């Protein structure tokens, strides 16, 4: 079978979705894919396609994101979807498309890539594509209503639910909790006090980034939980769940995608209120990914447990020196919203 490599445009989204269905047997909501591929602040996702006739038979794409490396802001990308049609396996589609995608990204000024590959794709990234596995990031889970799990129905599920409700989650202390989105000026003031250590690699969070990342088009019904002292925004949490647009693909997990604050007590208050709110919706579990110390310490206190480890891999697309060594695992800071799958 003969296929050629093409750079994708928004007009290819329908054919990309056809490939996704052929490979995985279902599809994400169309609005979600339009948001994911076409609406990022830095433009359409750099994407290389394998095309045979009118069919897209392979895909490799990056999610554009601004990274803050020390005091430097650079254009980066998260390795996102990669797939090959079952009829084209064993033809080197993954490797050739990846290298083509990196060339597309370089031409647009991308400098740093990161990703969290699954076990099947991990060897290809490390052995054939020159990625570096810097270390692992923890996936955290807290039970809320385990009777929703297919293996925990009946009396056992009821007992598990009672046990989950009895787990301490912390308290809001002297903070006032509000669930409306704050003004951008308050969010920016909070961000100015968050993760100010030198020599860090992290997503460059801004109010505009929050507007895009947690928009309605993301089809996850994101909600804000904010802790105030007087008129000061002291901490915020954002969490979401797949909504009805996902159809049968909808699950019962609540995703904690943001948790930050100006003090440990404020972070604890925002998390306690988030757990209460997520439990009230009937979510089975609340989960997140993080390696930010004040966050992970707070997660432990609220009875989150380590579920698994996600391998962090990185790759540079530039020969120019960067402000921070991206291969230094301890320099990276992540929250759930930094992963495209959350």
How far apart the termini lie comes to 36 Å
Order of helical and strand elements: EHHEEEHEHEHEHEHEEEHEHE
Estimate the mean pLDDT confidence: 92
Stretches with pLDDT under 50, minimum 5 residues: none
Helical percent range?
Answer: 25-40%
Quick one: CATH superfamily of the largest domain? Gcn5-related N-acetyltransferase (GNAT)
| SS-based class | alpha+beta
How many beta-strand runs? Answer: 13
Sketch the major β-sheet: 13 strands, mixed
Radius of gyration: 21 Å
Specify the overall morphology.
Answer: globular
CATH architecture of the largest domain: 3-Layer(aba) Sandwich
**How many helical stretches?**
9
CATH fold field value of the largest domain: Aminopeptidase
CATH top level of the largest domain?
Alpha Beta
Counted up, domains total: 2
Question: What structural keywords apply?
Answer:
alpha+beta, Aminopeptidase, 13-stranded mixed sheet
Question: Would you spell out the secondary-structure blueprint of this structure?
Answer:
Layout: E1 4-7, H1 13-24, H2 30-38, E2 47-52, E3 55-69, E4 72-84, H3 93-107, E5 112-115, H4 122-128, E6 132-143, H5 154-166, E7 176-178, H6 184-192, E8 201-203, H7 207-213, E9 223-229, E10 232-240, E11 253-261, H8 264-280, E12 285-289, H9 293-301, E13 305-316
Parallel strand pairs: 4-5, 11-12
Antiparallel strand pairs: 1-2, 2-3, 3-4, 3-8, 5-13, 6-12, 6-13, 7-9, 9-10, 10-11
Helix pairs in contact: 8-9
Task: Please provide a brief summary of the model.
The protein is α+β, with helices and mostly antiparallel strands and 342 residues long.
Describe the structure.
The chain is an alpha+beta fold. It has 2 domains: 4-110, 3-Layer(aba) Sandwich (Aminopeptidase), CATH 3.40.630.30; 138-310, 3-Layer(aba) Sandwich (Aminopeptidase), CATH 3.40.630. Helices cover 29% and strands 30% of the residues. It has 9 helices and 13 strands. Strands 1, 2, 3, 4, 5, 6, 7, 8, 9, 10, 11, 12 and 13 form a 13-stranded mixed sheet that branches. α3 links the parallel β4 (72-84) and β5 (112-115). The longest helix is centred in the C-terminal third of the chain and has 17 residues, at 264-280. The radius of gyration is 21 Å and the shape is globular.
């Amino acid at each position: 079978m003969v296929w050629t490599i093409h750079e994708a445009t928004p007009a290819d989204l329908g054919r990309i979705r056809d490939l996704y269905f052929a490979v995985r047997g279902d599809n994400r909501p169309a609005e979600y894919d339009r948001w994911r591929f076409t609406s990022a602040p830095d433009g359409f996702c750099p994407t290389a396609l394998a095309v045979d006739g009118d069919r897209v038979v392979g895909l490799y794409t990056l999610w554009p994101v601004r990274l803050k490396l020390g005091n430097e802001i650079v254009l980066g990308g998260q390795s996102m979807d990669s797939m090959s049609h079952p009829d084209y396996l064993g033809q080197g589609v993954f490797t050739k498309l990846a290298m083509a995608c990196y060339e597309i990204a370089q031409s647009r000024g991308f400098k740093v890539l990161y990703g969290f590959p699954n076990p099947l794709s991990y060897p290809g990234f490390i052995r054939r594509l020159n990625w570096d596995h810097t270390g692992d990031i923890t996936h955290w889970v807290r039970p809320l209503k385990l009777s929703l799990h297919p293996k925990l129905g009946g009396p056992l599920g009821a007992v598990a639910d009672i046990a989950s409700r009895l787990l301490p989650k912390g308290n809001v202390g002297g903070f006032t909790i509000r669930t409306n989105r704050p003004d951008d000026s308050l969010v920016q003031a909070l961000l100015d006090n968050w993760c100010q250590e030198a020599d860090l690699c992290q997503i460059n969070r801004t109010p505009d980034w929050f507007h895009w990342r947690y928009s309605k088009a993301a089809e996850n019904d994101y909600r804000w939980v904010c802790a105030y002292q007087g008129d000061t925004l002291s901490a915020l949490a954002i969490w979401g769940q797949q909504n009805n647009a996902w159809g049968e693909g909808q699950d019962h997990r609540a995703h904690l995608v943001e948790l930050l604050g100006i003090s440990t007590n404020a972070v604890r208050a925002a998390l306690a209120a988030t757990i209460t709110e997520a439990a009230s919706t009937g979510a089975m579990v609340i989960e997140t990914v993080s390696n930010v110390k004040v966050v992970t310490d707070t997660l432990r206190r609220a009875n989150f447990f380590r579920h698994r480890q996600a391998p962090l891999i990185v790759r540079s697309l530039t020969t120019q020196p960067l402000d921070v060594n991206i291969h230094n695992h301890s320099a990276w800071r992540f929250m759930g919203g930094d992963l495209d799958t959350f």
